Every structure is written in structure tokens, then in C-alpha cells.
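In this supplementary section we document a worked example of the pipeline. Step one takes a protein sequence of length 134 as its only input; no multiple sequence alignment statistics are reported here. Step two produces a three-dimensional model, which step three serialises into C-alpha cells for compact storage. The input and output of this example are shown verbatim.
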Amino acid sequence: MIKAKMIKNQKVEDSALSELYNHMHIYQGKTPKFMVFKTKYNNKTLYHCWAGGEIQDDDEIALTPVGSCALSALMNIEESNNNLIVKEIGSAKNCKKRIMEAMNLAKDKDKICFIGDMSDELDGEMTKVFKIIS
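The serialised model returned by step three reads:
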């Protein structure tokens, strides 16, 4: 398992939060926490998020409101570089393979956005690869 530390004090763009609040009809006073992590892997520090959504046939990235907020929080991490790898996980059976492909491709301080159906197809699958620590 790969240890993944959840990043605290996440900064999310106001536009992404507004879309989330409107979509979910929730109170706009407190910012939720999103699945955004710092990971040490093969002597590299990597930053990644788990974002609900998909890559469509025209290579357009379509994220859920929660996924948009997770990506926004990832992109606002200042100690990383701005190199972003987007990796669609797809099915549960490909989960570990797709994660490892992206982690091996990434360079030190890169950002990775893992995209997929986090609330259904991939529910519980990401934590089979990552051990979340606080």
C-alpha cells in the first residue's frame, strides 16, 4: 500500500465551491474537505486528488461538482510544480494498474488527478491502493 496524507487547509476556487453548493443545496459557510493527498513514492513527492467524473470521447474532461473542487484544491497546492497528469481509472479491475502507471510516469512534485466514478464503480477501490494517514 502507498501511504497518502490528506492535505489540510485546502484552497478551492470560489467558482468551484459555488457550483458544488448550488448542486448539492448545502450551506455555504463551511468548506468541505476533498480527497487531495501528498504521497511519497519512489523517492518522489507527489500530489494527487480523487475526482468524480470521466474523460469523454472528444477527450473533454467532465467532472462532477465535487471532482471540480478536488481538482481546484490540487491545482492550488503551492509547494508542487504545475505539471498535471490526468488519469482516468475506469473500472475497479484496472484501478491499481492505472494508479501505478500514473505514479511511475510522474516526476518529483507533479500533480495527478485520478478521475472515475468514485461513488459507485470505484467506491472503496482507491483505499485498496492508498493507505490514508493523517
